[in-house]
Design goal:
There is one protein chain. The chain contains three helices and five strands. By secondary structure, the protein is of the alpha/beta class. Pfam families: STAS_2.
């Protein structure tokens, strides 16, 4: 897993899973704490995430809210969009451009 960027926009790549969760959490919390306004997570380079990785995203979302910020997901890969829909988290998380529910296969 790799994360690059600053306190306004981060690009997340590789696998966001139980092995990378602690490092990802530290980077995301630091970015939330050090910035203002929206924090954009560009997920275009993300290969996969598991429940732990999704938990890291939700934790960053909650932390951003407590800091008066908003976490925005950008370029969410289709397989991860399906997981967000299946868990109904697409209703909670801000997703740039939304999710085209009609184009996703049923889960």
């Amino acid at each position: 897993m790799h994360i690059r960027g600053d306190h306004a926009e981060l690009v997340v790549g590789g696998r966001l899973d139980v092995r990378s969760a602690a490092d990802a959490r530290a980077v995301l919390h630091s970015a939330v704490d050090d910035g203002v306004g929206d924090l954009v997570l560009d997920l275009s380079e993300l290969d996969s995430w598991d429940a732990t990785g999704l938990g890291v995203i939700m934790g960053a979302h909650r932390r951003a809210g407590r800091c008066g910020r908003r976490l925005v997901l950008r370029d969410v890969p289709p397989q991860m969009q399906r997981l967000l829909v299946a868990t109904r988290l697409h209703r909670i998380l801000a997703i740039e451009g939304g999710i085209g529910l009609e184009s996703l296969p049923r889960v």
